[in-house]
TrEMBL record:
This is Class I SAM-dependent methyltransferase. One of its GO terms (biological process) is methylation. GO terms for molecular function: methyltransferase activity. InterPro entries: DNA_methylase_N6_adenine_CS, DUF7059, Euk-Arch_PrmC-MTase, SAM-dependent_MTases_sf, Small_mtfrase_dom. PROSITE patterns: N6_MTASE (PS00092). Keywords: Methyltransferase, S-adenosyl-L-methionine, Transferase. It comes from Actinomadura violacea. The keyword Methyltransferase applies. Residues 147-230 form the Methyltransferase small domain. Belongs to the eukaryotic/archaeal PrmC-related family.
Length: 485
């Protein structure tokens, strides 16, 4: 492979001069065309980019994937870098090149290079080794990843390198190792890293943890090939592993502790099977060992919905093979007793005394989750150790509000609700004792005298108040309503 570093550096400078960033393109398109593009509809964006400026030409060429007039931009470096071709007075894209916004939404993170998007209605399906660019899943993972500085990162199944680009500013300084089973993905990831000004990323070919046996990392991130396809199906390496069922995610979760440093994190997106007669929490919870674990289910689809989703993803709806492939997916799920497929995220942290939480969260949560995920895991461990007799004070979480529900003018509310306005935005119905604690716990006073004061004010037995607190407070700590300072 020829050395593309110098032309890619010149392309990066041209992109920056033109303002080819997410913020620049967003301002160029406006809300209507930008919203349509988010739905993969390009006509409004084509109308918004007809002016011929360098930013408009680059947006049309590399994001909308349409030819531009050769007079609109100097294509020599684009051609030399292998990103475009020029002939007949036109410049045509060879690859999809998209800017990345930082996870905070307040700056430019870099660029990712991927294969040209295959859009619905194009009459084609992706190649087996197709490399996808940034999307909803990669964005979700980037927002999940813990914000603490790290020295040694593994981006497992890097694809076009999205996660590594997001993470390179978080190293202190450190090293990123990016792996993939697809050699083409590693080639395009290397281009992404050069365009993003990243030096020294180690690129290794191989599946799961094979390329890094015997090494340890502070952080492992993975947007893995989690799609549960019919047995042995590995048509598209970006989404299907060829392993049966949800085995790829199970094996990654089980093996992660072997290559994590003490306190190190592994964070991934995953799909898992709901099998008739077996609670999904029990199945997926059995994958974990040696780590704090937070397993969150964000959605569930039935087998038909799931097959339709991934057949649309590969643009196979409307093709002659559609019905046969749809039927094969349903037959596979029926044989396995699959009643549904869960979508979610898994966060692991290597620990001596692991705390495990498996739950379903359907509500919108504050983003990025990575800004507070460490506190979520700490809450699980603190909840398991908590008792009112330990002498520790408690602090009410920031952003907590209390709601009282009852008829107008009633002396006492029928129901008291504590609600989080930030973080995971949970709500919990509580009793008088918990509501009273929420009003006074600031982390400065031990819990015991506060409980005694509540007992005196309410006329309740002090022993009963403490017993009640021992019962309800661990769950409220685990859910993030109270914190142990």
């Amino acid at each position: 492979m020829r050395d593309l570093r110098e032309p890619l550096r010149r392309v990066r400078a041209a992109f920056e001069d033109a303002g080819y960033t997410v913020g620049g393109v967003r301002g160029l398109l406006g809300p209507v065309a930008g919203g349509a593009l988010a739905r993969d509809e390009i006509v409004p964006a084509l109308r918004a980019t007809r002016g011929g400026s360098p930013l408009e030409a680059l947006t049309r060429l590399f994001w909308l994937q349409v030819p531009v007039d050769a007079a609109a931009l100097d294509a020599r470096d684009l051609v030399a870098a292998g990103l475009a071709e020029s002939s007949g007075g036109e410049v045509r894209p060879l690859l999809h090149v998209e800017p990345l916004e930082s996870v905070s939404g307040e700056g430019h993170a870099g660029y990712v290079v991927a294969d040209l998007k295959v859009r619905p209605g194009s009459g084609t399906v992706p190649a087996d080794d197709h490399v996808v660019g940034t999307g909803g899943a990669s964005g979700n993972l980037a927002r999940l990843v813990v914000h603490k500085p790290v020295d040694n990162v593994l981006d497992l199944g890097t694809g076009c390198g999205v996660q590594a680009v997001h993470l390179h500013d978080r190293l202190r300084p450190g090293r990123i190792t990016a792996t993939d089973v697809n050699p083409r993905a590693l080639e395009l990831a290397a281009m992404s890293f050069e365009l993003s000004g990243m030096d020294g990323v180690e690129l290794l070919e191989g599946s799961l943890l094979e390329p890094v046996r015997g090494r340890r990392f502070d952080l492992i991130v993975s947007n893995p090939p989690f799609v549960v396809a019919p047995s042995g199906d590995r048509r598209f390496t970006y989404r299907e592993s060829g392993m049966p069922g949800d085995d790829f995610c199970r094996r990654l979760v089980g093996a992660a502790p072997q290559i994590l440093e003490d306190g190190g994190y592994c964070q991934l997106l995953a799909n898992w099977l709901h099998v008739d007669g077996v609670p999904w929490e029990e199945r997926v919870g059995g994958w974990t060992q040696g780590c704090d674990a937070w397993i969150v289910q964000r959605d569930v689809q039935d087998p038909a919905e799931y097959a339709e989703l991934w057949l649309r993803d590969s643009c196979e709806a409307g093709t002659p093979e559609y019905r046969a492939r749809y039927d094969a997916w349903l037959e596979h799920f029926e044989r396995q007793g699959v009643t549904g497929i869960g979508f979610g995220w898994i966060t692991l942290r290597r620990a001596e005394r692991p705390a495990v939480r498996i739950e379903e969260l359907r509500q919108a949560v504050e983003q990025p989750v990575g800004a507070y995920v460490e506190g979520v895991l700490d809450g699980f461990g603190n909840a398991e150790k908590f008792s009112t007799g330990c002498g520790s004070p408690l602090r009410v979480a920031d952003g907590l509000v209390q709601e009282q529900v009852g008829p107008p003018g009633a002396e006492d509310p029928e129901r008291i609700v504590l609600r989080q306005t930030a973080g995971l935005r949970r709500a919990a119905g509580v009793g008088t004792v918990e509501a009273a604690l929420a009003g006074v716990c600031d982390g400065s006073v031990p819990l015991a005298p506060l409980l005694d004061a509540i007992a005196q004010l309410t006329g309740m037995d002090a022993g009963q108040v403490r017993a009640h607190a021992d019962t309800v407070l661990p769950e409220l700590i685990a859910d993030g309503f109270f914190e142990v300072p």
